[in-house]
TrEMBL record, chain A:
Signal peptide: none annotated. Residues 5-106 form the LOB domain. Belongs to the LOB domain-containing protein family. Pfam families: LOB. This is LOB domain-containing protein. It comes from Corchorus olitorius. It comes from the Eukaryota.
TrEMBL record, chain B:
It comes from the Eukaryota. Residues 6-107 form the LOB domain. It comes from Corchorus olitorius. This is LOB domain-containing protein. InterPro entries: LOB (IPR004883). Coiled coil: none annotated. Belongs to the LOB domain-containing protein family.
Length: 170, 157
């Protein structure tokens, strides 16, 4: 921008860095690796197209997420970010199982401590546990394969459950 | 070089002949043109070809699946792509950990002698989880990027 040194993108692409260079605000010259990795995975022209289609105030986040994905893909060329997603899903699964077991334990303790309530049979406790597990447990590993088959619904379904974006959603 | 009698979706899209050793054809059958269109839109054909060429053949199908998934996420959400899912999952993990800690604290109150042998489950420490997660990420750059998200999208993390 201006008469200063070219941004990292224009340096890598060996071209003049125009005043209105679309990359310049997000790829400063002091961090050449950032653009290099995004260019390697997505390509400069794809990144440029993606940024042009976004309002200016969303471009910084878009660049950050592209860099994140590009880094993940370079680190794991087979699974990229999907590897991390799969790992996190497993963690959620495990945590929900542990939570279900802990909640079942509380039920058990409470039932034992209630003198008026008859002590439930062992198999009824097992039924309670399996009920909790059935309703809290996520599908098994390799769920990303289900994502791949129904990916258009993935983000929408997730958003319905977690409305953390509110007004941020474009 | 012999050509495929029926071009794969990639070669159809790129309007070129489909050689018998086409790198795309095993993964982009002609009956699903949208699949290659999505991947091409986000990554570009030459980037995908380069990526596949660098992988052993038995890993390429999985790679294409994950590329397609990420491309679809990016098309649906041009700002955050599949990274949004990662944030949501991290939030779910955080919420589940809090709930688990509260539940275990309740157990400890209700029955103090049970506090140490909690249904044979492993304790789930937040620090262990973040270390494990970061091992799936390319180091500090990504953690810094997640921090950057927090500045511009309140409540995202």
């Amino acid at each position: 921008m201006g008469g200063n040194s070219p941004c990292a993108s224009c340096k890598l692409l060996r071209r003049r860095c125009a005043k209105d260079c679309i990359f310049a605000p997000y790829f400063p010259s002091d961090d050449p690796h950032k653009f290099a990795i995004v260019h390697k995975v997505f390509g400069a022209s794809n990144v440029s197209k993606m940024l042009q289609e976004l309002p200016v105030q969303q471009r910084a986040d878009a660049v950050s997420s592209l860099v994140y994905e590009a880094n993940a893909r370079v680190r794991d060329p087979v699974y990229g970010c999907v590897g991390a997603i799969s790992f996190l899903q497993n963690q959620v699964s495990q945590l929900q199982m542990q939570l279900a077991v802990a909640q079942a334990e509380i039920l058990c303790i409470q039932m034992q401590q209630e003198p008026m309530v008859p002590t439930p049979q062992l198999d009824q406790l097992e039924d309670d546990k399996s009920f909790l597990l059935q309703h809290n447990l996520l599908p098994h590993h390799h769920q990303y394969l289900n994502f791949a088959n129904s990916s258009t619904n993935v983000i929408q379904d997730s958003l319905k459950r977690e409305s953390i974006f509110g007004d941020m959603v474009s | 070089m012999t050509m495929n009698p029926r071009r794969c979706a990639a070669c159809k899209y790129l309007r070129r002949k489909c050689p018998s050793d086409c790198i795309f054809s095993p993964y982009f059958p002609s009956n699903n043109p949208q699949r290659f269109a999505s991947v091409h839109r986000i990554y570009g054909a030459s980037n995908v070809a380069k990526l596949l060429q660098q992988l052993p053949v038995d890993h390429r199908a999985e790679a294409v699946e994950s590329l397609y998934f990420e491309a679809q996420c990016r098309i649906e959400d041009p700002v955050y792509g599949c990274v949004r899912l990662i944030f949501l999952l991290q939030q779910q993990i955080h919420n589940a950990e809090s709930q688990l800690a509260k539940t275990r604290a309740q157990i400890a109150v209700l029955k103090p002698e049970n506090a140490n042998h909690n249904s044979q489950v492993q304790p789930f420490e937040i620090t262990d989880q973040s270390d494990n997660f970061n091992s799936f990420l390319p180091g500090q750059d990504c953690v810094a990027d997640l921090g950057h998200f927090n500045q511009t999208s309140s409540g995202f993390l």
